[in-house]
Amino acid sequence: MSERSYARLFFSRENQNAVGRVAPQGRKERKVFMKKALLIVAMLLAVSPVMATVTINAVNEGTWYTISQADGNRSATIRVDYNDASSDPNVRAFALDMTMDSNCNFWNIRSFKVGENNGTNNGYGIFPGRFRQFINPIDPNNGPNWMNANYNPTPPWADPGTTNTGIGFSTIIAELGYLGAGDVNMPAKSGTLFRVDINAYGFAGTAHLTVSADALRGGIVSKDSNGTIPAASTNLNPSTEVDVCFPVLCTTPTNEVGQTQAAALAVWGPSPGQGFTNINGVGVVNCANLGKVITNDQNCISLSTQLNYTYGIAPTEPNVVGMTRAAAVTALTNAGFTIQLPDVNRWGGPNNVTAVGNVYAQSPVAGTQTCSAVTLSVVSYPVKATSAFYANWATQGKPQCWGYPRQCRGDADGKKQGNYWVGTNDLAIYKTGANKNPITAMNGHCADFDHAKQGNYWVGTNDLAIYKVYANKAETLVPLCGNTSTTGDPNFWYWCLPTSGTCPTSPAGQVCAPAATCPNTP
To answer: What radius of gyration do the chain's Cα atoms show?
Structure first.
C-alpha cells in the first residue's frame, strides 16, 4: 500500500471509529499501538499534500512593549487564524512559513492548543517535530505531559529545511496537526492556530510579515481526500501578507507638559502601553510652574528610548547673613528669589554695628524651599532713610559726625571739652566750614548743625546761632539729638562715637557705635 493510501486508510471516518473501538487494552499493546499511530501522523505530514481551500489570516494585534522592561524593545503581536469555507470537511494539518522583513525577527510563539482532541480541548495540538522530542505517549502514571515548556509548533533545528529559522530569526516554521477519534473530536473549521511576537529592536516604520505554505512539510493537508478540491486552488487562498506598523516612539502625550512630575511619570511608564524605560527628570528653578513639567525631549536610540524632561522646582534660598546688601541681593536673585522692599535701614542690635551695611537676618531663613520674596534685615547707617535730613546727609557724603549724640546742638567733634559738650573746639570747626563752598578743611561739614543749606552754604549763621545757644552750657542743658532707645525716633537708628567718645548713659539702653566702625561713606 502506498504512503498516501495508508494515510487515507488511517484517517477515514470508519478507521477513526474503528481505532476507538478496537484499541488494545494491555499496557504493552497500547504502547505499541500509540507508537504506530504517532508514526502514521509523522508520515502523513511527509507525504505529498492533498489540497484544501483554506484561508489563512494574519492579524496584527498591535505594537506593545513588554519584551523587556530593561531594554525597551518593542514587539508586534500577530494572530494567525484559519478558515475552511470549502466543502472539504476538515483540515488535518498545517505547515506554514512566516517571514519578516526590515531586520525584524520572531522572539516568541504562543497561544496554541496542545494535546489530542477529546471533545473539550479540540485544536491543532500535535507538533510532529517537537512531539518525538518531548512527549512520552505512555506515562504509566499520568499519560502524556502536554505542558512541557519546550513543546511548541516550531520544528527542531536539526530537521530538514530549518537552517536560519525559528526564534531569533526572521523566518519561523510552524507545523500543527490533530489526533482524535470521530467527527466530534475534530477541530472547528475556523479558529486561531497561534500567535507570534515580533521583535523590532527600536525599528520605526512599516515592516511586512508574509505567510506561505511550507511545501517540504506538505503545506495544508486535508483530512479527507474525497473532499471537493478546486483544481486551481493553492495551499493558501489567498496568499497572506500583513503590515506590521511600528509607530515612531518620539511622540509626546498632549497632556504631559503642565502636568505635575508624578503625573508625567504615570503617563510615560515604564508600562506596557509606552516603553520609555530610561526617564530622567531634571528640576529647574521655575516658580511659575512649581512641580510641573516644563519641557520634554525624547531620544530614540537602538534598544531603548530615553525621555528627558524638566519640571519646575522651588529655589533653595542661600544663606546671605554677613554679606553686604548688594552681594546678598545678587545671590538671592541668581537663585531665583525676589527681594521684599524696603529691605534697608534695619538695625540689628549693638552686636552688629561692626557689620554696618551687611545683612544680619533673612526671612524665610536660608535653606527653605520657597518662591516667596525674601525680606532682608540689613545693619543700617546711623541716619534713617525716613529722616527729614537723610537726603542732605547723603549729599554731604554721609558724614559720621551727623550721628554724634549732640551734633545737632553744636557739638561738632562729639567730645567733651572740660565740662562742656559744646566749646571752643567746636567753634574752630565751625570757622573752617563757615561760608565755604565746597567745604574742604577739618571736616567743616560737621558744623552743619541744622543739617540744611543756607543760601549757597552748608555752614552759615543759622548754625552759629545753634552753637551760641549751647556753648559752655552744663550737660543737663544740652539735650541729645534723638532717643534711639525707642522705636519712634524719627532720625536715628543709633549714634556714632568719635575716638575716645563716650556713649550717653541716659536714657538707659542707648546704642552707640565707635568711630572705627561707624561709616561715613555710602
So the answer is: 50
Q: Is the peptide bond before 315 cis (omega within 30 degrees of 0)?
A: no
**Cross-strand partners of 109:** 196
Tens digit of pLDDT for each residue in 474-488? Answer: 998 999 898 766 656
Outline where 253-338 has alpha helix (H). Answer: 261-268, 325-334
Q: What are phi and psi of 379, to 5 degrees?
A: -65, 115
pLDDT digit string (tens) for 181-202?
777 788 888 899 999 988 766 5
| CB-side neighbour CA atoms (13 Å) of 263 | 13
Give residues with Cβ within 8 angstroms of 404, minimum separation 6: 411, 413, 414, 446, 481, 495, 496, 497, 498, 501
Beta bridge partners of 221: 93
- CA quadruple 181, 182, 184, 190: dihedral positive or negative? positive
Q: Cβ(409)–Cβ(424) under 8 Å?
A: no
Q: Quote the distance between the C-alpha of residue 413 and its chain's center.
A: 68
Task: Give me the sign of the Cα torsion angle 384, 386, 387, 391.
Answer: positive
Residue 164 DSSP SS3 = coil
DSSP category for residue 415: S
Strands 91-100 and 75-83: unpaired
CATH 1.10.357.20 fits 3-246, yes or no: no
Backbone angles phi, psi at 34, to 5 degrees: -65, -40
- The three-state secondary structure class of 314 is coil
Nine-digit cell string for 169: 530569526
Please write the tens of the pLDDT for every residue from 118-170: 777 788 999 998 988 888 776 666 667 788 888 999 999 889 999 999 998 99
User: Contact at 8 Å (CB) between 211 and 241?
Assistant: yes
The residue ranges of every structural domain in the chain are 3-246, 261-313, 325-378, 390-513
Are 381 and 356 in contact, with CB atoms under 8 Å apart? yes
- What does the block give as the cell for 20? 476507538
Which amino acid, residue 440? T
Q: Which helix (H) or strand (E) holds 212?
A: strand 205-213
Phi-psi region of 345 (alpha: psi -120 to 50; beta: other; left: phi over 0): left
